[in-house]
Amino acid sequence: MKVGVLYGKEDLRIEERPVPVPGPNQLVVKIDYAGICGTDLEFFKSGMTPAPLPMVLGHENVGTVSAVGEGAMDFKVGDTLLCGPPTACAQLCPSCRRGETNICINGFRATAGIGGPDGGYAEYYLVRDVAHTMLIKVPAGADLKEAALFDVVCVALHGVRKSRFKFGDNVVVSGTGPIGLSAIGILKAAGAGKIIALGTSPDKFPTLKAYGADCCVNPNEVADLGAEIRSLLDAEVGADVVYECAGRAASFKNCVRACVRPGGQVMVIGTIQENLDIVPGGFSIFEPNLDFSFVYTPDEVRIYLDMLKTGKLRFPDMVTDIISLTDCVEKGLNRKDRKGQLKILIDPKL
Ligand SMILES: [Zn+2]
Ligand SMILES: [Zn+2]
User: How far are the Cα atoms of 21, 50, 66, 209 from residue 100, in angstroms, in the given order?
Assistant: First the structure.
């Protein structure tokens, strides 16, 4: 079978490997789709991962069980599964004991495609430990491409659920990638007052509006972002809750300095990998609440699948490209033209 192996900075090779055979408490899943995540992009560009390379990338996997190891009683050949990050770790750390499996202290190194175990940029994927992997059956009738969006949608869902958002609140979502777009769709469904999207790619504005943004602002094109936000909200102050979904230092600054109302909340969903150059005294006098959100729990993935199945939440046009494994560098990780691009899925059957 073909696999996509990251060896180092901008060095991903397509290799042939034997199809894995499941051992006790393991499964083999034939991959239907593997999402290309912003995290994969960071790994590819930097060659830096939480585990030593080489490693098969891919942590956003949906596939069909093709072989079941001894003891993996809850699964059968033909089940369609989302294969996510670890659930409660084998060591049952304090976070996992509290049910906060998203902030498990052992989670990273056990996450396939991130922490060492090989991921889903492959025709077949080995689930190494069914008891401690987030394996969620996809209900019949759900669209597999939309199901494959679970990672981005649930990152946004966790951030919104963890925030202080209440029905009718005005919100700002900074970042127009798949996570920002998901947050807008969720906030619209949850009854947000006004939704303002901030982004530097105007080609994405029509999709953001279709998902529920009342207005879209390019922060680089307004002289006074705070005044612009207040004017769009028709209010003396900024938004009740502001979601940082771009994972950029500049976006974070906009959120805390220009967008949030006094006493409001900034929920940082994006993983910012840059130094921050800010003077807290400039905004701390208004007591904004600053909170962080990281990934999601199995229950949130189940909520997402239920919403998909019942049609209460849809994410049309989020998948902009479906590419083959062979093309995952040129048309995926190292893609030059990203105009209008949202989620890219790899289909290893192509
Ligand atoms: Zn991801
Ligand atoms: Zn744990």
Answer: 32, 21, 31, 33
